[in-house]
Each structure stands twice: as C-alpha cells, then as structure tokens.
Specification:
The protein has 72 residues and is mainly alpha-helical. It contains three helices and no strands. The chain has helices spanning 12-27, 37-52, 60-71.
C-alpha cells in the first residue's frame, strides 16, 4: 500500500504529530522486525559514551517539549 501525504501543505507541528503517531504504532509490533547488525554496534557505542559520561540525556517528554518550543 502506498500512502501519499500532503507534506508540503502540513505544518511542522502536524508533521511532528504524524511522526509520533507512526512511532507509537511501530512500537506495538517490536517483535516482528529484526534490527540490522549495524544497529547493535551503534547501541554499544552509545552505551559506552553514556557509561563514560560523554553523553547527557533528556527524558522523552522533556525533549518533545523543547522541540515544540523551538519550532513554534
């Protein structure tokens, strides 16, 4: 199935909401997709940076609010 969206007519908040809706739907079927090998490598690299203190994190709700403030 091909879905055509009027992306050029959508506002940025509408696009962000669409992305969030897609992610929520995709996350419901996590068992039906096998991640590629490179993804494990990226995760291990991120974990090493987090453990060494090289990375700082923000919870998802706070991050979404910051993004919305920046784009509004």
């Amino acid at each position: 199935m091909t879905v055509v969206l009027p992306l050029d007519q959508m506002t940025l908040p509408e696009k962000l909401q669409l992305m969030e809706d897609l992610w929520n739907d995709l996350s419901k079927s996590h068992g039906s997709f096998e991640s590629p090998a490179w993804h494990q490598e990226v995760l291990e690299e991120c974990r090493a940076k987090a453990e060494s203190g090289q990375e700082k994190f923000t919870d998802w709700e706070t991050a979404k609010e910051e993004i919305r403030r920046r784009v509004s």
